[in-house]
Amino acid sequence: MRIHVVGLGAVGSFVAFHLRRTLSPKHSVIALHRKSSAPAISQNPNGPSILLTSDGVIATQDGVEHAVYHTSPSPDRHLIAAPPLATHGQSRGDHPLELNRPWDPHELRSLHGPIDSLIIATKAYAVTWALTALRNHITRDSTIVLLHNGMGVYENVVEKLFPVPADRPNFVFASNTHGLWRKDTMHAVHAGVGEIQLGIVPDPLGRDYEAVLTGSRHAAFTDLRLDDIADLSDEKTMSPRYVTLRNTISALTSARALGASWRPFHETQTAIQRKLVVNAFVNPVSALLQCRNGKVLASDHGRWVMKRLCEEAQRLYEADFEASVAEQRRTHEIQAGSERLPPFIAPPFPSSLKKFALCAEVERVVEQTKYNYSSMYRDVQLGNKTEIDFINGYLLRIARKYRINALVNESLFHLVNMRSSIPLVKKAGR
């Protein structure tokens, strides 16, 4: 099994660290870097090792391979190039890996063939760019895990890169609640224990990954089975498409330190929606005020903004939910015309997406990460592109779709874009 990780920031380093620590050496964990980041990687004093600080203790993990990806002028010539790394004298294919050889990402060689498992932990706005660069290495049998902040990325990716459902790879949504921040190149700090929730996007070919839940009234308490993805004892389900999906879910959930669990897709969607609201308040407010997360609720004014934002989010989610239920009802009525189906029962709107639950979640996360700085805080400092388009911007797109007033959310969106256009910290060399 070969697992590729794109984005070696805090989250990507954390995931690669624990996958390499958990999986057998026969499985490869490969970190993919942009060509422009190769110099920084090569100058890393720790070499190819990944460092993780937790409770003040620094742990080092070796054995992660590294590769550089780039987009060539011709769309038919996307390459992944991999440096030779020492891994206990083992060889991979026709290329022996030499012991005690200096690690140099500039010494590249082409790596051909498809990517089976790809975990994307970049900023939301970089996901489509990364997948475009790797497009020729992705097949319908590949599995892609989207581990980023914000929403709306998946829709953009499938529209631009995978418009034909039958040719689309497997996609897995992931929601991360671990407190993580980047200290240095390939050095992450684990500041708060959380979890990673995984949800498999429904298969366009109609495969039921959650078959065990059929007819269950207690789906939330029912463990999903890997055999419903691909039964290793049944040749009929041993398609490469489903084997890569099973292996990816199995690898992530086996690394206990990640706290990863495979949940029903609607549960994961709800978790992502909750996190989006948290980020829609904490990230822009901390960026505008240039403060730690713990300060955003230090005044009554901050609490007022939080409550109004959560109210807006509930209205937006309710409108989108009602539209989805209406579409499900229409589909059911069409199917019921030719088949004997039980009456359609509309699911209830998730209580965890109501105002008071959302406010409670914001307060919980602020307390858990009170000494942390948000990623948007640093982006605004440096005048870098932020993820605001996929956080507050996503909520704004829902508001416009259903013609709902979302003034607090809209104000934060424009204020962050205005503030980020003027760097607060002079970049090196300028």
SSE map:
Blueprint: E1 2-6, H1 10-22, E2 28-34, H2 38-42, E3 50-54, E4 57-61, E5 65-70, E6 79-81, E7 91-92, E8 95-96, E9 117-120, H3 127-134, E10 143-146, H4 153-160, E11 170-176, E12 179-184, E13 187-192, E14 196-200, H5 240-254, E15 260-262, H6 265-289, H7 300-336, H8 355-368, H9 375-382, H10 392-402, H11 407-420
Parallel strand pairs: 1-2, 1-9, 2-5, 3-13, 9-10, 10-11, 14-15
Antiparallel strand pairs: 3-4, 5-6, 7-8, 11-14, 12-13
Helix pairs in contact: 6-7, 6-8, 6-9, 6-11, 7-8, 7-10, 10-11
What are the defining features of this structure?
alpha/beta; four-stranded mixed sheet; N-(1-d-carboxylethyl)-l-norvaline Dehydrogenase, domain 2; 37% helix; single chain; Rossmann fold; 2 domains; 430 residues; nine-stranded mixed sheet
Report on the architecture of this protein.
By secondary structure, the chain is of the alpha/beta class. It has two domains: 2-263, Rossmann fold; 269-420, N-(1-d-carboxylethyl)-l-norvaline Dehydrogenase, domain 2 (Orthogonal Bundle), CATH 1.10.1040.10. It contains eleven helices and 15 strands. Helix 6 (265-289) crosses helix 8. It starts with a strand and ends in a 10-residue tail after the last helix. The model is unreliable at 72-102 and 105-111 (pLDDT under 50).
